[in-house]
Design a protein that fits this description.
The complex is a heterodimer of chains A (414) and B (149). Chain A is of the alpha/beta class and 414 residues long. Helices cover 40% and strands 17% of the residues of chain A. In chain A, strands 4-10-9-8-7-5-6 form a 7-stranded mixed β-sheet, sandwiched between helices. In chain A, helix 2 runs antiparallel to helix 10, helix 3 crosses helix 10 and helix 4 (102-117) packs parallel to helix 5 (136-145). The two termini of chain A are 38 Å apart. Chain B starts with 6 loop residues before the first helix and ends with a helix. The chains are: A alpha/beta (414), B alpha+beta (149).
């Protein structure tokens, strides 16, 4: 765990806040407090500017145009691939595939590698704390192939039961698809350990990095993940772009996902040959503008410094946790030792939706409900939680506003 | 329970009640709604069947209807007290009406008391689905009644 003292120089949060224009607005006559960062982060001015600059300056279709605009747009698009490669420390730029988001990245693997490799009787392992987007694609695949889905159980604190996991692994295990950081609990899973164990059993591992990429240093090579997926919009970038990392030899062995332009080498009515990586998996005109701007978002994170961001978020997490634990009748869901800045809670006899409505009335944006993790909510025997998730621009004063709000809300609803 | 006032009159009463609340204090509106929610009698478990569930993304609403002497009577409940308060107002307006009255009701009061956001898709709290379901009940009883006659 990183402590504030270990950081040479703390971030100037006031200066960072000024870079996010939406934080200046009011909601219901109150200053906006945005605590729904696990759903999507807000965007810094540089990201907004980069989007405008793309359309105003060099919008063109990429890769085959011979004119200058096409060249500039292609260069910018491919520059993002290089930045993503560095961001997750992939071995090669060809291993970075652009998709619409984490969900599409997972579906891509299920529909290509999955359909090619999963046979009747095979087993796929996921965990109790998966987002629906890392459950449903595998259920569909299992139904189609008559394969089995196995679930890693979790403790009451919201940590994976690793012994149980190791027991699930066996000769029939073909794939382990695991969330790196739980969106509903904040738990950081020991992915290296999970991957090593899976590899010993001969299984391939996909890591859902939708929640981890913005908080943790990602090194897919050190982790030894076979696939890693994340979304631009959760790392201060635009919506509509995601990344799928895959080890080169796996990606090369996989059939294409979608057919169309961009992904072909030669097309005749008799036979089509496919383009090399990464284009084999990028059929059609991609989301050029948002992909170009993802680079700006990653540059923002790199320049701010992930270690410093994490240190600030840790302070917020501990502060919020300590304050929330003082509230009578409040129970925190997800008390893993290793957590990112996500805190989920329930309050006796109060529906999370009512908390969400009344906090919104005070300008405070939290998420309420099942967080697209219904099996996880069933595990805890609750309909949903209220979740506050913190980003680099959040402050202790904002947490104070939420705590004051919660006391008032409880009084109103009691 | 015979409803003597018209739908419009009942709606106006609710709108007038809201006007008495401090326009600048949104909490007061919600306190009123929460109060309405708490006053709505709990639905017997016998009515909390899968058939009567209107599933929102977050909260759950149960709605039961009876057709007595050409009028539709509603009973409902929710696990969210704010949703329950909004339901309570809908019942106050629509319960004990004829099928035609219910089908024609425009329910403008929801807008006028500033609660239209609860009918928006994003809220997903089942209220919009509940309004539809109340009208569906009225339509179903109307068709059943017409075919009988």
């Amino acid at each position: 765990m990183i402590t504030a003292t270990a950081i040479p120089k703390e971030l100037d949060i006031a200066a960072i806040r000024q870079q996010f224009p939406v934080l200046n607005r009011e909601v219901k006559g109150k200053p906006l407090v945005y605590f729904d960062n696990a759903a999507t982060s807000q965007k810094p001015q540089v990201v907004i500017d980069a989007l405008v600059n793309y359309y105003a300056g060099y919008n063109a279709n990429i890769h085959r145009g011979i004119h200058s605009l096409a060249e500039e747009a292609t260069a910018a698009f491919e520059a993002t691939r290089d930045t993503v490669k560095q961001f997750i420390n992939a071995a090669a730029r060809e291993e970075i595939i652009f998709t619409r988001g984490t969900t599409e990245s997972i579906n891509l693997v299920a529909n290509t590698w999955g359909r090619q490799n999963i046979k009747a009787g095979d087993e796929i392992i996921i965990s109790t704390m998966e987002h629906h987007s890392n459950i449903v694609p595998w259920q569909l695949l299992c139904e189609e192939k008559d394969a089995m889905l196995k679930i890693i159980p979790i403790s009451d604190d919201g940590e994976l039961l690793m012994d149980a996991y190791e027991k699930l692994l066996g000769p029939k295990t073909k794939l382990v698809s695991i969330v790196h950081v739980s969106n509903a609990l904040g738990t950081i899973n020991p992915v290296k350990q999970i991957i090593d164990a899976a590899h010993r059993a001969g299984a391939v591992v996909l890591v859902d990095g939708a929640q981890s990429s913005v908080h943790l240093d990602i090194d897919v090579q050190k982790m030894n993940a076979d696939f890693f997926a994340f979304s631009s919009h959760k790392v201060y970038g635009p919506t509509g772009v995601g990344v799928l990392y895959g080890k080169r030899q796996l990606l090369e062995s996989m059939p294409p996902f979608q057919g169309g332009g961009e992904m072909i080498k030669e097309v005749s009515f008799e036979k089509t040959t496919y383009a090399d990586l990464p284009y084999k998996f990028e059929a059609g005109t991609p989301n050029i503008a948002d992909t170009v701007v993802l680079k700006t978002a990653l540059d923002f994170i790199n320049e701010t410094g992930k270690t410093k961001i994490r240190a600030h978020e840790e302070i917020l997490l501990h502060y919020a946790t300590a304050q929330l634990e003082q509230i009578p009748g409040l129970r925190i869901i997800g008390k893993a030792k290793e957590k990112v800045s996500v805190v989920s809670f329930v309050i006796d006899n109060i529906h999370p939706q009512d908390i969400g409505i009344l906090l919104d009335n005070r300008g405070i944006a939290v998420r309420t409900g099942h967080h697209c993790t219904q099996p996880l909510m069933q595990r805890f025997g609750i309909p949903g939680t209220t979740r506050a998730s913190f980003a680099v621009y959040n402050t202790k004063e904002e947490i104070d506003a939420m705590i004051t709000g919660l006391y008032k809300v409880i009084k109103m609803l009691a | 329970m015979e409803n003597q006032k018209s739908i419009a009159e009942t709606e106006n009463e609710i709108i007038e009640d809201f006007k008495l609340l401090d326009a600048w204090d949104e909490d007061q509106k919600y306190e009123y709604i929460i109060d309405m929610g708490k006053k709505l009698p709990e639905l017997d478990d016998i009515h909390k069947t899968a058939e009567n569930v209107i599933k929102g993304c977050q909260s759950t609403v149960w709605l039961a209807a009876d057709f007595i002497d050409d009028k539709v009577y509603f009973k409902a409940d929710s696990n969210s007290v704010i949703t329950k308060g909004l339901i309570s107002m809908l019942i106050q307006v629509l319960s004990g009406r004829t099928t035609d009255e219910i089908i024609a009701a425009r329910l403008d009061f929801i807008n006028k008391i500033g609660m239209h956001s609860h009918l928006a898709q994003t809220r997903s709290n089942g209220l919009l689905a509940m309004v539809k379901q109340m009208k569906n009940y009225a339509l179903a009883y109307k068709i059943k009644n017409t075919s009988k006659a």
